[in-house]
Fold this sequence. Notes:
This protein is mostly helical. It has helices at residues 3-6, 9-32, 38-78.
Amino acid sequence: MNVYEIDWRLSSTRQVFQALSEALKSVKKIFLDKTREDYEREDALEHAENLLGIAFVTAQTYITGTVSDINQFAKTANN
């Protein structure tokens, strides 16, 4: 059985993480750019914190769904 047949959340979770990765790369460029003003770099850090929060919630949602699936499989196997 293919993992994608079971884990339909995986592709959307990967898409979210890829988008967040790209956004964090742009934040990194701003933060490391020495020609930027301090307030711009502080704003970039704040934006990065928000992006990491989104990543955490995405991972948490994925994990919760996966645990739910595993419990469902276990119930089915025991019957």
